[in-house]
Write a structure and sequence with these properties.
Oligomer: single chain
Region (Disordered): 371-391
Number of strands: 2
Order of helices and strands: HHHHHHHHHEEHHHHHH
Biased composition (Pro residues): 377-391
Strand content: under 5%
């Protein structure tokens, strides 16, 4: 048998490059396959219900792919260095390798060649990256049942909060519909804040499917992080949805009460219970003054509001046969022009309901005083000067 021939440097260099390339490709493949069902431990994810297990398997597989991608990116930069350092190791090996070692390597040579890349300084860093990736996958497999139980419990809790919020939205919607669908809709500009609370509450109703998706996304983005970071990422969307719903519930009850109270106050003052319709005089005042009249009427007692309506526009069934059916709303609006303030209207309503004079006579007397000698008009100083007449 001919004596073995020592290999040349070029042969060692090609062998080193081939071995390094094979080691990098094989390691990346094993990292990518680490979370495949055939590669995972038999009991992996066994503590998770069947219907939720596919999500976790997908997360674990994504983590494995992420580790493999990171390894490939790092290997692309270090491959020449590893090959050069592997060649140096082969060249320094004693005894020098021969053509027979290349053709039929012994067990010792195979062991040396298989571990060649990882023995280099550059290869050791890559090997550590691969080891960390395996550990991260194993760590998620270990944490998955705990995280799944936590998310399931938080999701059930969020479902209860969602149902509670919906139960509060229902009476609010009824109160809002009662205002919007009647003559009381003129109250809506006074209920802007409450209306916004209702809109915010409806927007805060948790979409459980969306929250689940956000949890998955947050956990995906936290893969490879610490246990505490992953915990906070997982429960973050659930806690945020719960807090938003709870805040909406805290604000919704007062808003519903405000709608109901405003509607009751309006009906007590504005609606003629005998005919079940708004008082004509009050609607005409609203048409002239707008929200100023509405606020002023709501500020006086129901008895006063009804008396104002009767005195400014007497219903026919309250007149004596010899009484003229005189409407005094135009006279009132002439004396108190469109730019009259709410406080002045309240004062006028109080004076009108407390006077012992016939309403028309009181208005004529007041107009005479305002036009003839305003200084003698019984006008509260805190109300300021009377509003100038409309041009």
């Amino acid at each position: 048998m001919p004596a073995p021939i020592p290999v040349t440097d070029d042969q060692l260099r090609r062998w080193a490059t081939e071995r390094v390339d094979r080691w990098i490709d094989d390691t990346e493949s094993r990292l990518r396959m680490a979370a495949e069902p055939t590669q995972m431990p038999p009991q992996a994810l066994a503590g998770i219900p069947d219907r939720r297990r596919p999500k976790w398997r997908d997360l674990v597989q994504q983590l494995a792919r992420t580790g493999a991608d990171a390894f490939r990116k790092a290997a692309a930069q270090r491959r020449p260095d590893i090959a050069a350092q592997a060649f140096a190791l082969l060249r320094a090996a004693e005894p020098r390798l021969t053509d027979r070692d290349m053709a039929q390597p012994s067990a010792a040579v195979k062991t040396m060649l298989d571990g060649l890349a990882a023995q280099t300084e550059a290869g050791a860093a890559l090997a550590a990256l691969a080891t960390a990736s395996y550990a991260t996958v194993a760590e998620l497999l270990e944490r998955a049942p705990l995280f799944d139980d936590l998310r399931a419990a938080k999701t059930v809790e969020l479902g209860y909060v969602r149902d509670s919020l919906l139960n509060l939205i229902a009476p609010f919607s009824q109160a809002q519909a009662a205002v919007t669908g009647s003559s009381a809709r003129k109250l809506l500009p006074l209920l802007v804040e409450e209306t916004a609370v209702g809109a915010a509450a409806r927007a805060a109703v948790p979409d459980l499917a969306r929250v689940e998706h956000d949890c998955d996304l947050a956990l995906r983005n936290s893969l490879g992080m610490s246990l505490g970071e992953q915990y906070r990422a997982l429960v973050g969307p659930l806690n945020a949805a719960r807090t938003a719903a709870q805040t909406a519930m805290d604000r919704l009850a007062p808003a519903s009460a405000a709608y109901g109270a405003m509607l009751a106050a309006f009906r007590d003052r504005w609606i003629d219970s005998h005919w079940d319709r708004p008082y004509s005089a009050l609607d005409k005042l609203f048409d002239f003054y707008g929200l100023t009249a509405l606020r002023a009427v709501l500020a006086i007692s129901p008895q006063q509001a009804r008396k104002v309506a009767y005195q400014l526009d007497p219903p026919y069934d309250r007149l004596r046969p010899d009484d003229p059916a005189i409407e005094l709303v135009p006279d009132f609006c002439r004396i108190f022009p469109r730019n009259t303030t709410e406080n002045v209207l309240i004062w006028a309503f109080n004076e009108l309901t407390n006077t012992t004079e016939e309403p028309g006579a009181w208005l004529r007397s007041l107009e005479h005083q305002l036009t003839g000698n305003p200084a003698t008009t019984p006008w509260p100083p805190e109300l300021g000067p009377p509003a100038p007449p409309d041009n």
